[in-house]
Amino acid sequence: xxxxxxxxxxxxxxxxxxxxxxxxxxxxxxxxxxxxxxxxxxxxxxxxxxxxxxxxxxxxxxxxxxxxxxxxxxxxxxxxxxxxxxxxxxxxxxxxxxxxxxxxxxxxxxxxxxxxxxxxxxxxxxxxxxxxxxxxxxxxxxxxxxxxxxxxxxxxxxxxxxxxxxxxxxxxxxxxxxxxxxxxxxxxxxxxxxxxxxxxxxxxxxxxxxxxxxxxxxxxxxxxxxxxxxxxxxxxxxxxxxxxxxxxxxxxxxxxxxxxxxxxxxxxxxxxxxxxxxxxxxxxxxxxxxxxx
Length: 293
Known about the structure:
- The protein is of the alpha+beta class.
- The protein is built from 5 helices and 11 strands, in the order ααβββββαβββααβββ.
- α3 (90-112) runs antiparallel to α5 (169-183).
- The longest helix is centred in the middle third of the chain and has 23 residues, at 90-112.
């Protein structure tokens, strides 16, 4: 009898220990998180609508959460649906909206002649990086990160990150434009080829990798010449869509990321600077180049 009680107690304590270690109890909440969130909200960079609504503060468990969460069901002033509702803090939501406007939609029109109508994305989750027990908290824990699994175009065609990264020529080019556009906006961008955790989604976040927030992670290194900003953008609607329309493959769970496994490389060494949106229609012509991995 006592042996059974002792064994049950030991298992209970062991389970409680695992639960306590699920989040890194020694991790502190860096001051810059609240500062940047407060500054973003003070500037009113997020426009609240029926699709973007403020919610009450998320405090915990541990240091997870955000001061002013936003529940989002659509982006782009309601033009782009989200497959599931997402929760983001002001800085990440602001950059995601800008990324959609200046890269994702122009790239969709350039390579497919139509806009993105729906995005499958994941955001807030209080957990360690890569879902590892006791690991440093993921940026998802602070509403500061987005994982994108797929894009659905206006005609219903789905471009998955998993299948499209090495899919048709148009899919590859579109996803690489999206990837490089993210690298120009976010401090961390990880796509297929960066490590084993990102074979099926693009992860973006606004983490600070150094005290001044100047270091950037943009993986993998790719050989690709962006076509956004050339006269190709003006001819977007004339570009034929890929003839093959296959069903989207099953999608794996989202919300995983890892810090740069190859070391941090300055953004200036990775890609050319993107011209302002106002210059897209006036940039000099450049012949299109086939994308390569």
